[in-house]
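Annotators were shown the component list below and the corresponding predicted structure, then asked to write short factual statements about the assembly.
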Amino acid sequence: MKRRSSSSLRVLVALLTAIAVALFALPILAIVTSAPWSRLIEQLSSVPVQQALGLSLISSFGAVLLAVLLGLPLALWLSQSTSLLRTIVRIIVTLPIVLPPVTAGIALLLAYGRSSLVGAQFERWFGFSLPFSTAATVVAAAYMGMPFFVLSVEAGLRALDPRYLDAAASLGAGPWRRLWSVTLPMIQPSLRTGILLCFARALGEYCATQMFAGNLPGSTRTLPLACAVAMEVDPELAIGLSLILASLSIAVLFVLRHSWTPRR
Amino acid sequence: MKRRSSSSLRVLVALLTAIAVALFALPILAIVTSAPWSRLIEQLSSVPVQQALGLSLISSFGAVLLAVLLGLPLALWLSQSTSLLRTIVRIIVTLPIVLPPVTAGIALLLAYGRSSLVGAQFERWFGFSLPFSTAATVVAAAYMGMPFFVLSVEAGLRALDPRYLDAAASLGAGPWRRLWSVTLPMIQPSLRTGILLCFARALGEYCATQMFAGNLPGSTRTLPLACAVAMEVDPELAIGLSLILASLSIAVLFVLRHSWTPRR
Amino acid sequence: MSLHLRFNLNRGPLQLKLDLAVNAGETLALVGPNGSGKTTCLHAAAGLISIDHGTILLNGAVLDDGTGNAFVPAEQRDIGIVFQEHRLFPHMSAQDNVAFGLRAHGIGRKAARLTAAAWLSRMGLGDFAAEKPHSLSGGQAQRVALARALAKAPRLLLLDEPLAAVDASARQDLRRDLATHLRAFAGPRIIVTHDAVDAFVLADRIAVLEGGRIVQTGTTEAISSNPRTRYVADLIGLNFFRGVVRDSALELKNGARLIVVSQHQGNAVATMHPRSVALFHEQPIGSPRNAWPAPIEALEPALDSVRVRIGGQAPLVAEVTAATVASMGLRPGLTIWVAIKATEVHVRPE
Amino acid sequence: MSLHLRFNLNRGPLQLKLDLAVNAGETLALVGPNGSGKTTCLHAAAGLISIDHGTILLNGAVLDDGTGNAFVPAEQRDIGIVFQEHRLFPHMSAQDNVAFGLRAHGIGRKAARLTAAAWLSRMGLGDFAAEKPHSLSGGQAQRVALARALAKAPRLLLLDEPLAAVDASARQDLRRDLATHLRAFAGPRIIVTHDAVDAFVLADRIAVLEGGRIVQTGTTEAISSNPRTRYVADLIGLNFFRGVVRDSALELKNGARLIVVSQHQGNAVATMHPRSVALFHEQPIGSPRNAWPAPIEALEPALDSVRVRIGGQAPLVAEVTAATVASMGLRPGLTIWVAIKATEVHVRPE
Amino acid sequence: HRRTTGPHSIRVFAAASLGAPISAIAKVFEAQHPDLRVELNFAGSATLLMQLREGAVADLLATADEQSMATVATWDLTSGSPRIFAQNQLAIVVRKGNPKGITALKDLARSDLAIGLCGPEVPAGRYAREALETAKVTVHPRTLETSVQALVGKVSLGELDAGIAYRTDANRDSVAAVAIPNAHNVTVHYLIATLSHGLQRSGADAFCAMVLSKEGQDLLHAHGFLAP
Ligand SMILES: Nc1ncnc2c1ncn2[C@@H]1O[C@H](COP(=O)(O)OP(=O)(O)OP(=O)(O)O)[C@@H](O)[C@H]1O
Ligand SMILES: Nc1ncnc2c1ncn2[C@@H]1O[C@H](COP(=O)(O)OP(=O)(O)OP(=O)(O)O)[C@@H](O)[C@H]1O
Ligand SMILES: [Mg+2]
Ligand SMILES: [Mg+2]
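Structure shown to annotators:
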């Protein structure tokens, strides 16, 4: 029911938005039109593509799960103060975004590979080494995607008015209930954005995955890896596979679109 | 002055935070210890590395600039409603995160390359073609980094209480002043996170850059590309260059750390 | 300069249907029960929500006509509004909050901050100029909000319970200060309040809003001498009954009857002052034409008297002295005789 | 069950230094000027901020001793608090807001929602159970906040201006309802208010907080018959002077003198009722021992009288009838003679 | 057309694996031709091809396989016939010091070893398969890498015990090469061609000549490549 007349800002926003949208839409349009649609249909039903699709879903949802499980506590902790320690941790968490993915993959291998301390322990306990396993694709995807989750959620937590938490405490709500019933619902936009960014990044990740998890059809070859493989022999197919990847995320985003409804 | 006694949540948060920090810190530690530090010092003063460093700074700061210039209006527009059009635009903006960077690079080439409609126009107007120019590294970095900015800022805008904007309007503040004096200061945490994510992603970007801008020393070879090149001949050096990249972002993050101070 | 509000506006369960004019230099007190639409009305006048039908005119110029074409946005209406929930900008100091409106009107930073500081001193907050809103007390925040609205010298002033959180002592000063300020202010002004004293002291005219409709308007005298609804009667502290006059008796809905002196027949409202209600232990013999036994529900000590709430079929309040309470041994639960002279019951046709 | 607050607490400019006890079943009204620390005090009792030194005891058990070791967090104190700014959870309906405290105490979802609905009806908000806070009016939100605090039947009740936004009519009912509820409630309760009537009706005892210190405590009668500071005098509507008694005259700081009847010599405060201030056009000849000319500053119509604010060296308020105002032609700016009998000036040593 | 880098530079697109020797040759070339600059664009064959297809302008193209060059030739982008300028051979890449004692292809079938290969999509993977087939060895690789680099990287980090790559790839400190006998080995040809849309035809020819000259061949040899 609120109306604001048109203003210079409105016009400028509209203009710049149009430019921005064009900037993003043109490349997408370009690959959509150049994709080999007829071949895609048949590819979609091929076993390797389906396997890759499945692995992609496993690794990206796994990454989101890990991100929420570990990233939420981390974000809570980071948002609590601005001590030097937290600054350092925040920087460490940001680094996977900056590092070239190959380097990130090497770092993962060095830290969790067979010949690393942790990796050796892991192999002793669980009987298999992390690299070249499906679990490794999840770890790689989480390593690359989680920073986005952590930083988004931290921003949300910092913007949260702590007086609502006080109110909840005064009503007898312990830390768990405060977290579940007040904090999480109130930082919903950031939480959602964090999950989205993490999911998208994990879904598209391949350099670090290839380095850390390898590239074996059926166990570690996710869709982006299949894409990279196809790029070597059949760039058109690679574009096609990328579009399958894109459709996957579009489907997820479309399902989630209603959760963007503003809170108030 | 507020104290909360230790609780099960606190303990669990501490525990999971520790795990998360370890997950992130171990790989970083691993590459830091395996890096050829002595050679790095000399590399740092070599012309190609300095050129790459300069180009990386140009492309990532350029990307942030573009992101703010175009992404802020886009985020403002996106946050205004939940129409289908906006959902579609949001999906389009998210796609660069999901697409394998090589595909993203191809998309950019297809859309803005010399043989594309836009690219041809561009060449006619400005006398040079975008691909294989420094400008192209900025475009590629912006294309890959801006989505993070847009989505973070949108989350912040959605969490902003519109009543403060009403208050500002009632005091005679037009759209510009509302944006500048109320909206932007109040969404600071998201804005800052958006800039950080965009900067970090742009700084680390290389696949799409390589495809769209090429890998020409002095004009398009950014630090991650130099890293990728070094990876072929001298993996140790590549790790070293990655660490320079990391240090660069650490420096930026460290300079910005005080802006994380909570608003209230 | 005058403000005409004549519009329909639906918000959730509220159906606001208004026809109200405020003249230049006139202060209108808008009173009414919670949820009756007072805040909504101010927001429509301010341009923060748009109306569905009708027009809002300021000095003859259309501010909104329900079509969206003529809608003048808030920032162009030159209003000063105090929000019920203050809405101070959390990222600005008290001084910058007050200076904000001045800055938006093109006044330089320095001059704006000086004026803001002067306003804060006037509100007794000279020492708190540099504080952010979260470290102000409730009353302090409200005063900053008041200063913020007044400092920019707007054409139209809209005050939504501007003194609700101010302490009793400062309220007297602030009310006086506000009265002076309002008198000096040329445009129309509307003040929403739940405080009868605020309304009487500050307003030239009172409009009573109930359920989205104006049920009564008039000068403070007219309203207080002739309350038309229970809400108004409660506001000014009178007993109130609504019923039908038949044969010089007011018949209430529940069948109770009050003997009254009235030429009028038919629907009517009746009021009486709590002081004109007398209490007896036994059935009184004498002039009061109305007398009935009823239980005491509560005793409410006021300043120099006690308000005795009485239940029964015609619940009312009697005002007696503390001495009477003591001597009669009044206490909740006790049944006593209530007596009212017919001449003390003021009946008005409805 | 009783609450003992004995602590120091510094927050920004405020230095709160308190020693206050509230017994089981007792309602304490905490009154005082804006920024005096009332809200801070409630928050310390609630465990939302911790004290610097001292102890907070509930029924003998330490809730906070300033060291952090004994600190009992808010959620374990079993309190009910109404915040001055409501703090309703914006993402929950009114009903879920009220049910929140019940749920936190282990009551099942269904039962909690039922109880919450009942409480909302009791507050006159039965129709608004499903509304989110942003679509409630200010007064409705406050009532939800009140319901939320009361519904969980806490051990300790802390109400920060719980009726400030409630309309005059509902306020009477709610006040009565609250009084009944408070009487039935076993624990100690503190109510912060700026409304003298609320304080008198709801509280057994009043504590006056000024600048972080308790300056006076006592029963409502004791306080109202013997206000020790200007704030309290203003709260209950009396004229107030502070000075030194010498030779049966109170000398004010600015040199003005008031003839008084007092055995006491030295520092003292004096009060007089506005009704005991008489106004004349000419210098009165007769019994009043105090008389001086002074300008009228303002006329404030009250319900059945007019309060005349008078300036000069000893500013005060006179209460006269509207008829007097008319017959004497009183108006702001006019200089009149003020006369007060020495016996009407109540002097108390300080 | 104008380029950002000015008219006096020749642009060379080269396969990433040729980075080191081509850079070295370019350095010598620039010293000998002060009026010319060499712009080197290294990337995987797929990227280079995509860039050329989408209109990128270059003077020279050096590929690590014949197939890529043939593809470019079908687009009529090469001028003159491409020339082989270097050769390479497969080798078993093992960790430094060969801790698992791998001496021949047949060792790769051992079940106690973690073996990696390149995928059949990349030339190295195809050739490795050929070599294994001719040697009649069946290998169960843990991974099929899309780049030789990634494969060798993993061997050097100890994640893999051995892999089949080019002999030029064993030039790191942490790995060693175990030669594959010629009978089983595959020879890879590196091709160079000037491009028809290039702007510096004479410079390109000069650079091409330099690569094929003794000086160029020595540099290639120094980096482990074999003469054609
Ligand atoms: N954004 C909204 N969405 C839905 N309903 C609304 C909204 N805002 C207000 N209302 C409804 O309008 C009614 C009137 O609200 P308003 O705030 O105008 O009341 P008010 O007269 O100011 O009351 P109070 O004295 O309590 O401040 C309320 O009952 C509320 O339910
Ligand atoms: N978070 C804070 N930081 C700094 N100062 C604070 C903070 N909270 C309160 N104060 C200071 O403490 C003083 C008392 O605040 P408090 O809210 O207790 O007052 P109050 O008695 O409740 O006043 P009111 O009647 O206006 O609600 C204020 O002057 C304020 O400046
Ligand atoms: Mg209101
Ligand atoms: Mg307070």
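Statements collected:
1. The longest strand of chain E covers residues 78-95.
2. Residues 19-32 of chain E form the longest helix (14 residues).
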